[in-house]
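Table 4 source record.
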Amino acid sequence: MPRKLILIGPESTGKTTLSVHLAKLYNFDLIAEYSREYLSKKNNSYDYEDLKKIAIQQNQIEKNNNSEKIIIDTDLLTIKIWSEFKYGSCDSEIEKIISSYDRNNRYYLLLKDDIKWEYDPLRENKNDRSEIFLLFKKLLEKERLNFSIITGTGVSRVNNAIKIVEERFLHKN
């Protein structure tokens, strides 16, 4: 069964950059954040129903990849957090998929909001990143998912992530 390393956290915390770096460093398959592709086709406009469509496709992409080790630039936890934060609820189908996750083959890197926010047309919450970080942490704990928090800036952030990946992901039997 494939082992999955998932990077999650608030906007503008370096998830995509770090995902790409780690995938290249370890020669892992990388699953990109599907919502970016979806939203670019809709001119960055979306509603509650779009989140379910994004979640189903993101999950399908993940299920179709059977590589031994995979890095995922966000998963459905991000969609759940975002749905609840923006709309006050999350679709039950998204909840069902999350509850079916195999806790033994997933490891999360939760990126702290301790780096400077950078503009991107898809980003909406420059001023709520600390609150959103705490929502991610609480959800990971509630779902009993294995995770580590990644902090630091620049090279130290990358080195912190590499240390965690090597200690807790690569050497886990």
